[in-house]
Design goal:
about 20% strand, Rossmann fold, 4-stranded parallel beta sheet, globular, Serine Threonine Protein Phosphatase 5, Tetratricopeptide repeat, Alpha-Beta Plaits, 20 helices, 6-stranded mixed beta sheet
């Protein structure tokens, strides 16, 4: 439950205020700070998997908020706050982005004041705090929720006697202190030696807003970005321009020896457009718009170790943006039931469609789709009733946010992995009613355990298990359980644990670049050792050589 907060004393009005233009400047500064520190925030995600993207999700969410506010014709406080909120709600990526969007929503004042004074600013943070708690079904201490609780309480206390600057300063100062407490509140953070990434992201936002209010420079980076040019993000923004683009906005970093940026650029120009290659020697960073991100990544892996990968579907982003325009026509509903699923990888996407998904939103690990992306897919079905399968724990909140924004009747079955989503699709009956389908699909996902095998993105210790950077690891139902010498050993160890208690079927989803013969041989070995049916599917998912479903 949310903690109680001190209430401001309305008898002591502070001086000064924030109008629409000022609020936009504050939010813009916060977006810039999150963009600068995205990599540092990504690096402190607890689990050492290659999809630590809290910083990226918060940055993209805040950028979407500011973009919409900048387009708004109404530059009053209410107009800017409404536009920023709508942009954040539709652009929210990942759980951290959804929670951040709710905090931003707190700035939409119910009384329509022209300025935020100290009392109103404290009230805005308090409303944002309440909204953030409402979207999280099981709030946890030691997270962004703890920080907004502490910050809003400090703001309320300061508002009893101080002006806007003092209120925001109190919130930022207490946010910093609350972030430092997160390892004590969540033992997993303490064991890993990090603070909570989302909590730190909220502090970054509040601190930047305070610095903008004071006319100061935004704080320097909290983490080392190595030799990546700080102008990179500005260059990629220019590459995107204002037009309608298709394909995938693909980015990654290559670490190797004697990397030739010019040669890499020439090769990628044959694969796509808007090619940017920064660096050289031991490290380069790449941006390219391409219809075949897998080919670009495969080429990159021939040159060295590839990290910080993402591939965003620009067509889906464009459609989501078009659907949000004020003059966009409402979707035409044709009745019936449709299922929208989320998945990454050509094989996964084809499989989801083949067993009943009317639309597949490209995304999942490392590239969480926004609420707007999911909303566009929902509306494109034209169905009166739509079931959404997030297929990733970090997409559930965005799916629920999209459901609330749609004119259709949308229901979210909280699948937390692709194997669960596939089981839910198999259980669906297009001729049955919505309630019957929801029950059957929910029961199906409960019967599936999921394993994820990948390489550790960094060295750490979690639950007493120490892993080295690059070591094959396995997560079972989201928990790090296995660290082995090879990917095959990690798969075997995961299956051994997942079969405890009995199971009838094991499915291996082979990831991008995995050899079909190797996958078949691994399946044969599992059949021989455990005496269970083992199926192999071509998933093509990035970053995870194997996903494992056990029913």
């Amino acid at each position: 439950m949310p903690h109680p907060r001190p209430q401001p004393d309305a008898a002591s009005p502070p001086s000064g205020g924030i109008d629409g233009a000022s609020l936009l400047r504050l939010f813009s500064g916060g977006a810039a700070a999150l963009r600068q520190q995205a990599a540092a925030l990504n690096a402190i995600n607890v689990f050492p998997v290659p999809d630590g993207d809290t910083g990226t999700n918060m940055s993209l969410t805040m950028r979407a908020s500011v973009d919409e506010a900048e387009r708004a014709a109404d530059r009053t406080l209410a107009g800017v706050a409404r536009a920023a909120t709508h942009g954040a709600l539709m652009g929210a990526k990942g759980n951290s982005g959804v929670i951040l969007s709710q905090i931003i929503a707190g700035f939409v004042a119910p009384d329509g004041d022209d300025e935020l004074d100290g009392l109103a600013l404290a009230a805005a943070l308090d409303r944002g705090r309440d909204a953030a708690y409402r979207v999280v079904s099981q709030p946890r201490e030691g997270t962004i929720l703890s920080v907004i609780t502490a910050a809003s309480a400090a703001a309320a206390h300061a508002a009893q006697r101080s002006d806007v600057e003092a209120v925001l300063a109190a919130a930022a100062d207490e946010a910093r202190a609350a972030v430092a407490r997160t390892p004590e509140q969540m033992p997993l953070l303490k064991e890993a030696g990090v603070v909570d990434a989302g909590a730190q992201g909220l502090y970054v936002l509040l601190d930047a807003m305070l610095r903008v209010l004071r006319g100061e420079e935004i704080a320097p980076l909290a983490g080392d970005l190595g030799s990546i040019d700080p102008a990179w993000l500005e260059a990629t923004e220019r590459a995107h321009g204002e037009g309608h683009a298709s394909g995938f906005c693909t980015e990654f970093v290559i670490e190797g020896e004697a990397l030739d940026a010019g040669a890499i650029r020439e090769r990628l120009l044959r694969m796509g457009e808007s090619v940017l290659v920064v660096g050289g020697g031991a490290l380069v960073r790449v941006h390219v718009h391409t219809e075949a991100p897998g080919d670009a990544l495969a080429y990159a892996r021939t040159l060295g170790a590839v990290s910080h990968e993402k591939a965003d579907d620009m067509e889906a982003q464009f459609q989501a943006l078009a659907a949000r325009r004020h003059d966009a026509a409402p979707p035409v509903r044709a009745g019936g039931l449709a299922i929208v699923a989320v998945g990454a990888g050509d094989g996964v996407e084809a499989l989801l469609r083949s067993i009943g998904a009317a639309a597949v939103v490209r995304g999942g690990q490392t590239m969480n789709p926004s609420a707007g992306d999911i909303l566009a897919a929902i509306d494109a079905t034209g169905a009166d009733d739509v079931i959404v399968l997030p297929d990733n724990k970090n997409v559930i909140l965005a799916a629920e946010q999209a459901a609330q924004a749609s004119s259709a009747r949308v229901h979210v079955v909280p699948s937390r992995s692709v194997p669960q989503g596939i089981a839910a699709l198999i259980a669906a009956n297009p001729e049955a009613g919505i309630e019957e389908n929801m029950a059957a699909m929910t029961e199906a996902i409960a019967a599936v355990r999921t394993g994820e095998v990948t390489h550790a993105a960094r060295a750490t210790t979690i639950h007493g298990l120490s892993v080295a950077q690059g070591q094959p690891i396995g997560l079972i139902d989201g928990d790090l359980c296995v660290a082995e010498a090879s990917i095959a050993d990690a798969v075997r160890a995961c299956v051994a644990r997942m079969l405890d208690g009995g199971a009838s079927l094991v499915t291996l989803y082979a990831g991008e670049g995995e050899d079909a013969a190797g996958a078949d041989a691994l399946a044969d070995a599992l059949r021989a050792e455990f005496g269970v049916d083992v199926e192999v599917a071509e998933g093509g998912q990035p970053h995870y050589p194997y996903l494992i479903g056990v029913e």
